Every structure is written in C-alpha cells, then in structure tokens.
Amino acid sequence: MTKIQETTLEINLPSLKENYHHLRSFLNPQTKFMAVVKAYAYGSDSCEIALFLEGLGVDYFAVAYTKEGVRLREAGVKTPIVVLHPLELHFKDLIKYNLQPSIYSYPVLESFLKVAKDQSHYPVHLKFNTGLNRLGFNAEELPELLDKFDRQSHLKIASVFSHLGASEDLKEKHFTLNQIKVFKNIRNEVISKLPYRPLFHMLNTSGILNYSSEAEFDMVRSGIGLYGFGNDPKYNSLFKPIASLKSIISQIHHLKPGESVGYNRGYIVSGTMTTATIPLGHADGISRHYGQGKGFLILHGKKCPIVGNVCMDMLMIDVSGIQCKAGDEVVIFGPENNAADLAMAGSTISYELLTAISQRITRKIVY
Fold it and tell me: Residue by residue, what is the 3-state secondary structure of 164-227?
C-alpha cells in the first residue's frame, strides 16, 4: 500500500459491499433497500458511495437536505433520492433535479403543493411520528391527510414511513414494539383508503438487526450499518468499518520535567517524555474532548494517548519508548482502533466522530 504523505481518510469499497450484503441477509429477497448517504455518506464521500451502491442495486437513496441530493444527481446518480428534511427555499431545485421530498407536516405539504402545481403525480413520502417526536404527522391526522391526497392529482404517495427512536436498546423493546404497533395501524388505514399501494418502511440499521421479523414491511433504511457499525458490540463484529483515518508525524520533541505541551500548558511533563505532533485538530473533526489523555492514536501498533489540548490543526501524542521519526504513519481510527471505541473515549458516538471529519481532509478510495 502506498505510504501516505498527509492526513487521509481511506474509504474501502469492498468492505461497503460486504456490509450491504450482510444487511440484506437479514431481509426477504423482495424487500427494497434505501441507503442513507446524508452528511457526505457519514463523513466519507457521498458521490463515490452512492455510485458504488447504485451498481449493487439499492432501490433508493436518502439524504437530509436538497443540496445533498443535487450533488448526487450532478455526479450521475440516477436512483430515486428521498430528501428527509426538505426546506421550502429549495423546493424548485428539488423538482428540477427529480428529488422526492419527505412530507412531514401540513405547512410543508401546502408549500410543496404550490411549487408542484404543474406536476402530475409527483412522488412524495409521508413521514409519521410514532414516538421519536422529531418530525412527522401524528396518526390522528391521517384521515384528513388521505382525504387531501384524494382530492388532488399533483402528488402521489410513493411511501409512508416512520423512524424508530431506540431500536438499538433492547431495554426499550416495549417502547419500540409500541412504535411498530402504531405504524401498523397507520399502514392498515392507508391501504384501506388509497386506491393504490405505496411502500411502507420503518426499520433503520438497528431495526434491521433487532426487529426484522416484526417490522420489515416493504423497505428498510440503513446508514451506519453500511459504514461498518451495528450500534452494539455483538453486531459491530459482523460489520467492517469502511473508513480509516490516517496521518503522519510532523515533528518529534524530547521534553524535560516541568515543560508543558500545547495551549494553556494543557499537560505538564513530570518525567522525561517524547511527543509527536500530528497535523490533525478540531478543525478536522477531532474535538478537544479527545485531549488530556482521553483519546489515543496508534503508532507502530501501540496506543499513544493525546496529551494536552487538541489544537485547531494539530494534536500531540505521547510516543515515549517508541522508535519513530517524522513522516511515520499514525492511525486515528481503522482496523487497529475502531471509531466506535475512540468515540466512546471522547464520550460521544461513532456517528458524531465520522460525520465530523472535515472535508479538507483528503479522501482516498480503495477498490
């Protein structure tokens, strides 16, 4: 493998393929698959990821905002794309680029109807709130909502969906099963009232792993699972993280007792210490939470704690006792140091760590 010369996020497409097929192994062959590629495909490269998954045959993509969908279209993605949180400001672009909005409230519906007045049966996706209390119509609004769709032909309901709030936490199984029950009632009413049948979907990655038998419906949605994480140690081992963040040593310092490291003298050396400066900081997504020994990097197979405070563009690690030099490679997360474990050391989750990785970091696609 080519030696890196700068901080690089390596994106492994064979691992992505394995994760996709593993998730599909939990499902019936006819169940459709929506790949979630919002936030630059969880901090990686949304265009490369989407084009690759399109080749594997995914049925839909999901993004958070219209601009993300436009970016995929401009990269050549032809698969249907759902915009989960469309903003009225971008409705014209949404239609221009053949993107499909999630409609989650009456104000959103009314605004989109005005923009789509010249359309015929434009596909939309109805979002229902079943307990997450974030976005979505309530079940009580369903009769009036269906009546509204029955009286106009601008729009067509392509799917009806909801989102689980605690599918990874089996201690909350009662809560999750109640969400599923509410959604099943919504599903039954939609089927009984509409002259056509939309798709129904509710399961996220943890839902696929824990509730496929209860709520597979017509389609599932996966984000974090595709990128290599199962939200549970027993499932994490079944997936392969697709992203490895690597950097290099810029400079080495040999410090004496009483000397300090970094801003605000964040670390005071008690004995002798050797530190290595790495060109990576909180502007790159490695926040100050990882400083003061909480986070660590891997150098020549050994854990090296971050010392002092993480700077904007640099951080320092303790490399005492390790033979190393400027230019040597260090691993922030990857096979040797799982992103979920590093995130836990910083009191956060893999989602935040992955999606925070700055776009100024070079991406390298591994085929």
Answer: CCCCCCHHHHHHHHHHHHHHHHHHHHHHHHCCCCCEEECCCHHHHHHHHHHHCCCEEEECCCCC
Answer yes or no: CATH 3.90.1640.10 is held by domain 31-227.
no
Task: Please provide the CATH number assigned to the domain covering 243-366.
Answer: 2.40.37.10
- pLDDT tens digits for range 53-75: 999 999 999 999 999 999 999 99
Please check whether residue 350 is in contact with residue 233, taking contact to mean a CB–CB distance below 8 angstroms: no
> For 84-134, how does the pLDDT look when each residue is reduced to its tens digit (9 = 90+)?
999 999 999 999 999 999 999 999 999 999 999 999 999 999 999 999 999
pLDDT exceeds cutoff 70 at 1: no
What does the pLDDT read at residue 150?
81
For residues 111 and 294, give the distance between their C-alpha atoms in angstroms, rounded to a whole number: 48
Spatial CB neighbours of 167, under 8 Å, sequence gap ≥ 6: 176, 203, 204, 206, 207, 210, 211
Backbone CA torsion sign across 213, 217, 218, 224: negative
Phi and psi for 17 in degrees, rounded to 5? -60, -45
Cβ atoms 99, 70 nearer than 8 A? yes
Instruction: Please state, rounded to an integer, the average pLDDT across all residues of the chain.
Output: 96
- Residue ranges covered by each domain of the chain: 31-227, 243-366
Q: Of 201, 228, 199, which is closest to residue 212 (Cα–Cα)?
A: 201
H, E, C per residue of 10-64: EEEHHHHHHHHHHHHCCCCCCCEEEEECHHHHHHCCHHHHHHHHHHHCCCEEEEC
- The pLDDT tens digits of the residues spanning 27-57 come to 999 999 999 999 999 999 999 999 999 999 9
Are 90 and 66 a contacting pair, CB within 8 Å? yes
Q: What pTM did the predictor assign?
A: 0.96
276: β partners: 252, 317
> To which H or E segment does residue 350 belong?
helix 350-355
Question: What's the angle, vertex CA 81, arms to CA 76 and CA 87, rounded to 5?
Answer: 115
Interatomic CA distance for residues 272 and 253, integer angstroms: 11
> What amino acid positions are annotated as catalytic residues?
38, 263
pLDDT tens digit string along 149-172? 888 779 999 999 999 999 999 999
CB distance 310 to 288 below 8 Å: yes
